[in-house]
Write a structure and sequence with these properties.
The chain is an alpha+beta fold and about 260 residues long. It is about 55% helix and about 15% strand. It has 6 helices and 7 strands; from the N terminus they run ββαααββαββααβ. Strands 5-6-7 form a 3-stranded mixed sheet. A two-stranded antiparallel ribbon has the order 1-2. A two-stranded antiparallel ribbon has the order 3-4. The longest helix is centred in the middle third of the chain and has 65 residues.
């Protein structure tokens, strides 16, 4: 397709020019790019102007600050920060003190409960022991070579690791493997039944003999671990009738 023909008249002369389509397109693109660039530049200039205005406003506010007043404000803030730190420290100290006191109170409560349970158990065992014929004292505690321990204490020593106190206050005896001891009828063994068992067994020497044979003049004996044990009174021991070697070896006991 032939190019368009343009005419230009200057005075009496007419000049014919021919414009190429690609040149026209390039010109239009250049104009559009120029227009876009100018719009972007105006936008950036406007943004810089706003930023500069904000900075100028901040600068004026800073210039308006009284240095002395600013210093006072800084010192006041520093004091508030220090007070806050001290309050937090005091709070932590009080909190830790409360926790320590709470732990001590819990420990004291546990100790008191254990002491009460121990006293309750001791009282019940001693009562059952004496009711079963337990000796008030089997040893002359003033005699040389004798042990400073009473029969009731000996019974408690033997049983202390094989007793469990239930929440109901009932005392339960445990066997060597930690199971509850039962009587012949399948019920939990009572304290009195346990004392009868001990009296007939290896702890028999800690109980008063049922027959002392006092009318025969012979020294009464009881059985302990299947072996006879001589029984002397305190008066007999003082008169020298009781052998200290026999008492020390467990072959003889002294009763009051």
């Amino acid at each position: 397709m032939p190019s368009e023909i343009e005419t230009e008249t200057t005075g009496t002369e007419t000049t014919i020019t021919q414009a190429e389509p690609q040149e026209i397109q390039n010109l239009l693109s250049a104009l559009e790019k120029e227009r876009t660039g100018r719009a972007q530049a105006e936008k950036e200039l406007k943004a810089r102007t706003i930023k500069e205005q904000e900075l100028q406003a901040q600068l004026k506010r800073v210039e308006a600050i009284d240095p002395d007043q600013y210093k006072k404000l800084q010192e006041a803030q520093a004091r508030r920060d220090e007070d806050d730190l001290l309050r937090r420290k005091k709070f932590d100290e009080v909190r830790q003190q409360y926790l320590n006191e709470a732990d001590a109170a819990r420990k004291q409560t546990t100790d008191l409960k254990n002491q009460y349970n121990s006293l309750l158990t001791k009282t019940a065992i001693e009562k059952a022991f004496f009711e079963a014929g337990g000796r008030k004292s089997s040893f002359d505690l003033s005699a040389q070579g004798t042990e400073d321990v009473t029969p009731a204490e000996a019974i408690l020593y033997v049983l202390q690791h094989r007793i469990r106190l239930e929440e109901t206050g009932q005392i339960v005896f445990l066997n060597s493997v930690g199971n509850t001891e039962m009587n012949s009828e399948g019920r939990v063994k009572s304290i009195s039944e346990k004392m009868v068992e001990l009296k007939k067994g290896s702890m028999g020497a800690l109980f008063e003999p049922e027959n002392t044979n006092s009318g025969t003049g012979a020294t009464p004996t009881v059985s302990s671990n299947g072996k006879p044990v001589k029984v002397y009174s305190v008066e007999q021991a003082r008169n020298g009738r009781a052998s200290m070697d026999d008492i020390a070896s467990g072959k003889a006991i002294i009763t009051r």
